[in-house]
Design goal:
This protein is α/β, with parallel strands linked by helices and about 375 residues long. It folds into three domains: about 220 residues, Nucleotidyltransferase, domain 5 (2-Layer Sandwich), CATH 3.30.420.10; about 50 residues, no CATH class; about 60 residues, no CATH class. Helix content is about 35%, strand content about 15%. It contains 15 helices and eight strands. The strands form two sheets. The protein has a six-stranded mixed beta sheet. It has a two-stranded antiparallel ribbon with strand order 7-8. The longest helix has 17 residues. It is globular and about 70 Å long.
């Protein structure tokens, strides 16, 4: 079941935002470009599904459903299940708009009868998803991740067909007047490293670089980075605070630290962070390096499985992606530079830098 925002949490979010600002949360699912490559990499991915969830403390332009705050709600109050979201096409329905208007007025037929007051509105939410035709077949590796098939996207619009509506959202423009008067903040989970560059690259592919430029200029609230910044340091004292155990007095004394560690473990079990004992135990189990591998992840292997005294561009082979089976030299310096600047462990990057020598000094 989808996770819905708690109304009282939305009230807290409104308090963080400028008046009438819109938070535009989005997520993309992709497939690989027919030319090959990793579908997770900007420039090699084609969007097959775009989901958005817009929120504001003020009514959204032409769409959106008010989210009511239950009386006496706390930050732990669960959301109504489920919240009802109104799509733009629905929001123009006269009966629906009339129902919203009548909710705040006495019943016309009997002035003595007053409809019970609606709880305070926490804000307005719009949610939608569109299947996007990528213009190519969806590769099996992508289908295995998101379960989206060719049949599901075949009748969908191409990305270029929805670019103008996306531009309206990004600029906070009213769909009727085209006037942009509201601040817009993008929101995503790891969006700065994935969803934003991927969507921008695909917009450029279909000739909508103007929308890509606006997308890249829009400021982003990345929920993953916010979580990292909000978490206390990974010390025992910080972890105790993270699990609501209060400040650790007597830190770095054996008796206080051992008892605090037990309290943390119990708290982790209570909040579901130990759903499986074996999985938790395996976190501390060192993984053996694959036979013939250069690094712990097996991303690179030695030529013919023979460990050399010094790595070179010719005695190390790539073991994943479009260059699988090729030597570093054949894969190319630019590809190796990309690896060294990417999200890979140091034991993946260091042999590459050693192999290329001075040429990789700034990689």
């Amino acid at each position: 079941m989808p996770v819905h925002p708690r109304p009282s949490d939305l009230v807290a979010l409104v308090a963080c935002l400028p008046p009438a600002a819109i938070v535009l949360t989005f997520d993309v699912e992709t497939c690989a470009d027919p030319a090959g490559g990793d579908a997770r990499v900007a420039g090699r991915a084609r969007v097959v599904q775009l989901g958005i969830a817009a929120f504001s403390g003020e009514p959204l332009p032409g769409c959106g459903d008010p989210v009511h705050l239950p009386p006496g709600a706390t930050t732990h109050e669960p959301a109504p299940a489920p919240l009802r979201y109104v799509h733009r096409s629905d929001a123009s329905d006269a009966d629906l708009l009339a129902a919203f208007a009548e909710a705040d007025e006495p019943a016309a037929a009997d002035p003595a009868t007053v409809i019970p007051a609606i709880p305070a509105v926490a804000g307005y939410v719009f949610s939608d998803v569109v299947m996007v035709n990528p213009g190519c077949r969806i590769d099996p590796a992508s289908q295995a991740i998101h379960r989206i098939t060719d049949a599901q996207v075949r009748q969908g619009p191409g990305l270029v067909a929805i670019a103008d509506e996306l531009l309206l959202w990004l600029t906070g423009a009213d769909p009727e007047t085209g006037v942009a008067e509201r601040a817009v903040y993008l929101c995503g989970y790891n969006a700065l490293r994935y969803d934003v560059p991927v969507l921008a690259a695909d917009l450029r592919r279909v000739g909508r670089g103007d929308v890509a430029d606006v997308l890249l200029r829009t400021r982003v609230l990345d929920a993953m980075l916010i979580r990292k910044a909000a978490d206390p340091p990974m010390t025992l004292a910080g972890t105790a605070l993270r699990y609501g155990l209060g400040g650790l007095e007597g830190a770095h004394t054996a008796d206080a630290d051992s008892l605090a560690t037990l309290a943390v473990l119990a708290a982790q079990a209570a909040c579901g962070h130990i759903p499986d004992l074996e999985a938790a135990l395996s976190l501390g189990t060192a993984r053996a390096t694959p036979a013939g591998a250069v690094d712990s992840q097996g991303k690179r292997k030695w030529l013919d499985g023979k460990i050399a005294d010094k790595p070179t561009p010719d005695n190390i082979l790539v073991e994943f992606g479009k260059h699988k089976g090729k030597s570093l030299r054949v894969a190319g310096a630019n590809y190796c530079k990309w690896i060294c600047g990417g999200d890979f462990p140091d034991d993946v990057k260091d042999p590459i830098r050693l192999a290329w020598g001075p040429a990789a000094a700034k990689w």
